[in-house]
Specification:
The chain contains three helices and ten strands, in the order H-E-E-E-E-E-H-E-E-E-E-H-E. It has a seven-stranded antiparallel beta sheet, with helices on both faces. Helices cover 25% and strands 43% of the residues. The protein is globular and about 35 Å long.
Length: 157
Amino acid sequence: MQRALTLGILMLTLISTSAQTLQTWNWDSYKMKFKAPDNMVVQQNDAAGYQATNNNITLDIYPRTGENLTYDGMKTAIVNWANQVSLNYDPSTQPIYLSNINRYWGCAIDGVKQGFSASALLLVNPDYPDLSYYVWISYAPEYYHDAVAILRSFEPL
């Protein structure tokens, strides 16, 4: 019994050390907010893009204007982007359509690039369909839950 308790405590310790404290970040250029680890180092935060990283997660956001994407257009655009960046994924089950992420809609592809887990997310605000956001996140596999929390957190300001 004591061995099982010790093993359980060890497992909880390992799980908790793989989670990072997420805070709200604002991308003022596009009136967007999202959650990301509090120890991210912002490398770019302007109208051309947003880039931040730490030892476990890298997050990039690239805006594009004038695409006015339909659902099929979104699928095509994210597949093309995933192929351009050499993201390895299962095309029989992806991309995944996301109908409502905090007032955004989009498509996502999960895969692997150069041994790291990665996700590509394409977001469109239905109120401003001429503006698209291409979100890239790569992460160490043990930070999967943080990556999902980040991807689900995008919201217009």
